[in-house]
Amino acid sequence: MTEKQKNLIVRTITGLLFVAIMVCGFLNPRAMVLLFSIITALALWEYSGLVNEEADSVQVNRFISTVAGVYIFVAVAAWRTGIVNNFVVMVPYILSVIYLLVSELYTGNKNAINDWAYTMFGQMYIALPFSLINILAFEMAPDGSGIHFDTLLPMSVFIFLWANDTGAYCSGSLLGKHKLFPRISPHKSWEGSIGGGILVLIVAAIIGYLANKGTETHTLNLYQWLGLGLVVVVFGTWGDLVESLFKRTLGVKDSGNILPGHGGMLDRFDSSLMAIPAAVVYLYTLQIF
């Protein structure tokens, strides 16, 4: 067996386990909160470690940044599930941010602005987007009887992202000629992106049809599911490119090696870091109009 074949087997096994864990996590509200708390922690820990190692004259407080990011995720989950209804739940996070800013007065690092910038970027780029998945998952029931956990809506974002990756890889390998963004990601093509988008729209149509087939229809109709799929495709692609730009800026190929054959946590969740916030904005836009 060649090294390439071994890598393919490792990558396939890792991918299947990853999908299985993600799907199982979405089947139960507590499991989802626990799963994404862990994902947030691992992603922030990886990010801060990568920045400290590769960025010039930067020293992010790895522990406090990770704890703060996990806390904001849990705080939003507590708010959305109705455990707390008071802004006081945000006070520890605010204090953490203040600490991260004030602590630079005493570290003696020669470029405090870079420390602040990379620290706050980690919170905005990783912690905030992951915390917003609670907005997709938890909503007050239409009859006001309590909090409703929507398994399908947050899981569909990842289903669309996986479909987009699959469609883009297949169509790009077969038809790819025109580079999408050669300066940042030379392997991506317009043909691949279009193929991925088409597959996502097909998957969205299937989900929309099945979700509204029974007596209890979903809050999104078929056309709204198609719109969500399109939003995830566009912003998921941008999310992938943003992470590629981040890695190129630091001069690294992968963000980590925690997932054999798939790189690091940021490599695996890069698309979702923009797709999740975009999905939330899209859903609120539907409510307005």
Describe the structure.
It is built from 12 helices and 4 strands. It is mainly α. The strands form 2 sheets. The protein has a two-stranded antiparallel ribbon. The protein has a two-stranded antiparallel sheet with strand order 3-4. Strand 3 and strand 4 (185-189) form a beta hairpin. Helix 2 runs antiparallel to helix 3 (62-80) and helix 10 (222-250) runs antiparallel to helix 12. It is globular and about 60 Å long.
Topology summary:
Elements: H1 3-26, H2 29-54, H3 62-80, H4 91-102, H5 104-107, H6 112-131, H7 133-137, E1 138-140, E2 147-149, H8 152-175, E3 179-181, E4 185-189, H9 190-211, H10 222-250, H11 265-269, H12 272-288
Antiparallel strand pairs: 1-2, 3-4
Helix pairs in contact: 1-2, 2-3, 2-6, 3-4, 3-6, 6-12, 8-9, 8-10, 8-12, 9-10, 10-12
Approximately how much beta-strand content do the residues carry? under 5%
Mean pLDDT: 90
N-to-C CA distance: 57 Å
Assign an overall shape: globular
Low-confidence stretches: none
Structural class, judged by helices and strands? mainly alpha
Summary tags:
289 residues, mainly alpha, two-stranded antiparallel sheet, globular
Summary?
By secondary structure, this protein is mainly alpha-helical. It has helices at about 5-25, 30-55, 60-80, 90-100, 105, 110-130, 135, 150-175, 190-210, 220-250, 265-270, 270-289, and strands spanning about 140, 145-150, 180, 185-190.
